[in-house]
Amino acid sequence: MRKLALAAAVAAVSFAVPAFAQDMSTTATTDTSATAPSDAPRAPDGTRAFGIEPYFGVMGGWEQFSRQGAGIPAQPRGYKLDGALVEGVVGVNVPLGPVFVGAEGSVAKGVSGNIDWQYGAYGRAGFRAGDSGLFYGKVGYRWNNFDHFAPGVVGDTKYDYHGVVYGVGAEIGPKDIGLGGITGNSGLRFRIEATTFDKAHSFRPMAGVIAHF
């Protein structure tokens, strides 16, 4: 009798376990589909719309100042205050759907010409081109330290002049070869930009590489 009861119990378990497993599988599938963020905000290319992206980069370029402006002493006719620059930048972007805002600081060193050091702080805002491209405007404040002026021209003791800076730029990221974008994994973007000092008293084209993480 006990053998018959045991056989019946084994048979019941044999049928119950597959049924329970199937039921659990169905429940899990239902729960996953119910919680999937299919309606979450998306960027223009379908990636996440929001996030925080710290970054740093290295750029190179050149700046030429007009004969006067922002208190810079007038130079003799034909003499230009200019110089080649190497610049380090660090900042953060905050994507907001198809647009973004951000803040950035920079330090530049002159490698030729009249410019010795530059220090700046800026705000940026613009449009996202998919997840890896940016088109932006920037405005901020920059301190310029000159190494020397034209012979016979005397400035203040430290050759320091500062003023508002504004400009435009673009960044292009190789997302198509597997590198991340503004809300993705770490990767690289190529940046080009042009800015001007004070009331359009300089022209400063720069280009470089930005690494975000």
Explain what this protein looks like in three dimensions.
The protein has 213 residues and is α+β, with helices and mostly antiparallel strands. 16% of the residues lie in helices and 49% in strands. The protein is built from one helix and eight strands; from the N terminus they run H-E-E-E-E-E-E-E-E. The protein has an eight-stranded antiparallel β-barrel. A hairpin with a 4-residue loop joins strand 7 and strand 8 (202-212). The longest helix has 34 residues, at 2-35. It is elongated.
Ends: how far apart? 71 Å
How many strands, what sense, and barrel or not for the largest sheet? 8 strands, antiparallel, barrel
Which regions are unreliable across 5 or more consecutive residues at pLDDT < 50? 1-37
| Shape designation | elongated
Rg from C-alpha positions? 30 Å
Estimate the helix proportion, in percent. 10-25%
Structural class: alpha+beta
Residues in β-strands, percent: over 45%
Helix tally? 1
Number of separate strands: 8
Order of helices and strands: HEEEEEEEE
Identify the strand order in the major beta sheet.
Answer: 1-2-3-4-5-6-7-8
Mean pLDDT: 78
Identify the notable features of this structure and list them briefly.
1 helix; eight-stranded antiparallel barrel; elongated; alpha+beta; 213 residues; disordered N terminus
